[in-house]
Amino acid sequence: MRNEQDLHHEDEIEEVSFTLTDDEIRSVTEAVRAQDPDTVNSVLDELSAADTAELIAKVSDEERNELVTMYGDALDPVTFTELNPELSRACLTNMPAKQVAEIITALDSDDALDLIINLDDDQQKDIIRNLSAKTRMAVEEGLSFPEDSAGRLMQREVVAVPEFWNVGKTIDYLRAAGADLPEDFFDVFIIDPAYHIKGQIPLNTLVRTPRSEKLENMVLNDIETIPATMDQEEVAHLFRRDNIISAPVVDENRRLIGVITIDDIVDVIDEEAQEDILKMAGVDQDDLYRAILSTTGTRFRWLFVNLLTAILASYVISVFDTTIEQLVALAVLMPIVASMGGNAGTQALTVAVRAIATKELSATNTWRIIWKETLVGTLNGAAFALITGIIAGLWFTNPLLGGVIAVAMIVNLIIAGFFGASIPILLNRFGSDPAVASTVFLTTITDVVGFFVFLGLAAIMLL
């Protein structure tokens, strides 16, 4: 039997929260409004960088500006790396260039670059002028690489040693370097005098090896080097496929210039996944914190495209307006055909978009995936044709009407499966983003085909 103390301990574990409570947020905002710096500074000292970022994200714009302006020096610089990019930009824009430069200087090079690339060109120049020569050089080099490339993702602080060293000398060097080493690193890179990568040794291997062992006898031969111009999605795929913890980044001369670690890749995977999901709905990643007019304009373009496709579907319906007038039941049943086709197509589309994003789809299995989704659509179409046909026939006491909607259901779900899988693949082949445009084409096809088959059959068979 567990005693009362054990049960109480379990209750405490269950109540552990990894987010700030409303009361905690309210207490800070009240202190900010009351201009009580002692309370605000005391709370900020107790919060982690992630908690502080959550606090900044959840308060009002006015409270956020005052918190950042009045208490910016008390904020951990890492806090700004935890913020949504749009929110980070809004906070840093309201701060003096010198203060932003101090924040950037305190961060690792990859995090520093993440902050500065979100800012306007003029503000970037002002901040860069306030940086030390070393930090300025690292930032300017990072900005020179293509957007979303490995060069912008990498950390420039690396641990590299000559290939002629032994384990003992390397360990002694690491201990002596101390604060000059990166905050987190997993491998020691072995280089020649020209800074070309000769191998890498995981830290756990290094500490298990006798001090007298030569590094050149230990290096890994199958080392993965990442070109600085490689797209970050390709880098994430490489890490995921080969279970990499860290990998060196090289320039066009294959010289070591930085390192990418798994924590950076987790952020990339999360960012790309969110971006694809939001794009499928026509929403930008920073929509939550963007200004109202900017958000409205972005969504308007997507809704306008959807309006045009809806007009096309409505035109198909108008062609059969006489048929609908004579048999009102068709107007009742039409949404069922369109809705089922759209949902079935979205399922196939989601599978295809994911396969493209994760590099699971290639020329060798393209037709197999399309065929599978078409067959799934056929089988589901047959099942739902039977169910819908019986319901419609009994509902309107018209077995022939049940047969019409059953045929329309089968045809539309076959079309949904085929085009749901093939549209993203075709768009990807032509260089378009399948996450953005696929849904528009798919819903247009399933609506037009669904309405045309259903109303066309009704016009032929029922009237």
What does this structure look like?
With 463 residues, the protein is mostly helical. It has three domains: 20-153, MgtE N-terminal domain-like (MgtE N-terminal fold), CATH 1.25.60; 160-261, CBS-domain; 291-461, Tetracycline Repressor, domain 2 (Orthogonal Bundle). It has helices spanning 4-14, 22-33, 37-46, 49-58, 61-71, 78-81, 85-93, 97-105, 109-116, 121-129, 133-143, 150-153, 167-177, 203-208, 232-242, 262-279, 292-319, 321-326, 329-357, 366-395, 399-429, 434-461; strands spanning 160-162, 187-191, 197-202, 226-227, 246-250, 256-261. Strand 1, helix 13 and strand 2 (187-191) form a beta-alpha-beta unit. Helix 17 (292-319) runs parallel beside helix 22 (434-461), helix 19 (329-357) runs parallel beside helix 21 (399-429) and helix 20 (366-395) packs antiparallel against helix 21 (399-429). The longest helix has 31 residues, at 399-429. The radius of gyration is 30 Å and the shape is globular.
